[in-house]
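To whoever is on call:

I kicked off a structure prediction for a single chain this morning and the downstream step that reads the tokens threw a length-mismatch warning. I double-checked the sequence; it's 432 residues and nothing unusual in it as far as I can see. Pasting both halves so you can look.
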Amino acid sequence: MNARDRQILQIAVPSIVSNVTVPLLGLIDVAIVGHMGSAVYIGAVAVGSMIFSLTYWLFGFLRMGTSGLTAQALGRRDLTEIARILVRSAMVAAGIATVLIVLQVPLLWLMFWLIEPTEDVAPLAATYFRIVIWGAPASLALFSLTGWFIGMQNTRIPMLVSILQNVVNIVASLTLVYGIGMKIEGVAIGTVIAQYAGLLMAVGMLLRGYSRIFRNHHNVWNFRGIRAFFSVNRDIFLRTVCLVAVNLYFTSAGARQGAVVLSVNTVMLQLFLFFSYFMDGFAYAGEALGGRFFGARNDSAFHETVRRLFGWALLVTTVFTLLYIVSSMDIVRLLTDEPQVRDVARDYIWWIWLVPAAGAAAFIWDGIFVGITATRGMLVSTIVATLSFGAVYLLTRDSLGNDGLWLAQVVYLAMRGILQTVWYRLRIINGR
């Protein structure tokens, strides 16, 4: 293992650990409400969590845009701009959080219109939402801080923050629910407490390790910096809208084929998510190292990083493909004990064998493109891939049914990787 591989792993491994802790937080909340005596509590937390997942996902540009710009400024050794980037991002995050809180009533109405919770679940989900929305400033600020830390080649701090949030959420929620006797309110308040605990820890580590950088960050709102910041984040935001649209349509198209098919697709997507947790770790390494070397105009180190990242992607893809070929149905049986879901899953499970190979390049290129702020390439490739998804499914849904839906998903993932490869060769290498 050479020095570049060690650099990649130093960034990727903590990121993978952080990613794995994310679903644990949801499982903890479900486990707590699952013992409250009614299934509606589980449904309320599920709906509430989905609302915030969709909302915050749209503002993921706060993390990605901050990461790439910071990494490039680090490569240029521009400490003043490094400070400016975080201040800008944090101020934008605060502005968005304020808007979400002020517009929480129409936001809740819109999300209920999209999700359509049942009448017994809706009031409890609304209670959960009205409490957790006050955690928006902390959650969005953490997006900015996490992106900045990644750009500074430090994924250890986001990992520690993520672990702390899980621990605080467990302790706070258990205390409020079982100690004080709260119901859904206790789980919601525990979530908010965990969010602000994470923010306090991140700010504390920022001040402890990087305070000297922020002694001089005058002229935060200079025109050139602002234009770059909003240009990058506009492209990432529009790309995220496409991603959200594909995911929502995938879910709704499965639902129209019946509860069993919807359940099968949901279970199979968990296998895709598990793969994505690992690939995202290497994507973050692409953001940090790729952006740093690109900003420093160190072309040899940059191209070596790209090659090494794809080498790790090949290894991870091979491992997961073999794992899913051998054990995917065993994993399905762990995730559900419904006989009908298990039986139907056998008809479609082979699609998940193709997902790692189809999606690996897209993950790595996304990280590299974020790092070098080639966000227009990300946007264009995602738009074309989204249109490909729609075209493939519309042409095959009557003849192939759910197989057509999974074919569209595989084509969508592969198209993103293929188009970004072309963009990289034509617009980045040749334009450098």
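Update from on-call: the warning came from a stale cache, not from the record. Cleared it. Sanity check on the structure: The chain has a mean pLDDT of 87.
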